[in-house]
Amino acid sequence: MIKSSQGSSARIVAAILCSMVVILLVLYIRQTNQYSTLLRIHHQSQNSMQEKTIDIAKLKNELKVKDSQCTAELETLDNEATECDIKSQALDKELENIKKKVSAAQDDKASYDSIIAAEKERFLHMQQQLQKEAETCVVEGKELETKLKECEASKALPPPNPVAPKINDLNPMEIAPEMKQEGLTDENTESVQITP
């Protein structure tokens, strides 16, 4: 009886121990699986962190490169802005000089206009004087032409006699027409010598 009871109790203890061992094994396996899962997750997270760190380093390098490029572009833009300011100042000076030249040219034009107006008036006055002188020359020319014709007519008369008779001794019918035209009569002249 005692042996049988001891054997049954030993079996129970052995069964309990086996069951406990099984439970421990199951728990160990579960813990191992969880640990491996956690370890895998940890490795994955480390890998992702390393990748992210590498990406961050690449981004930092790219940012540094872009920063240097932006700084160089800003310096270039600053230099161009300075050059534009210098050119703008030079253009402003040229514009001022051009305005001064334009004002001086306008003043010169006004003075030239006054001079031209005075010269026009003087030219018109001279033209009027020349016109009057031309009219006078025409009149004098006509007079000279008349005198020339008279001279030519007087040259066409016959040569004079050596001794001219007195008008009182001549017959009024025999007086030459030329003498009559010149107004030579007995009243104003006693003796006349015909001249060419």
From TrEMBL:
Residues 174-196 are annotated as: Disordered. It comes from Oopsacas minuta. The lineage of its organism: Eukaryota, Metazoa, Porifera, Hexactinellida, Hexasterophora. This is Uncharacterized protein. Keywords: Coiled coil, Membrane, Transmembrane, Transmembrane helix. Residues 42-108 form a coiled coil. The chain crosses the membrane at residues 12-29.
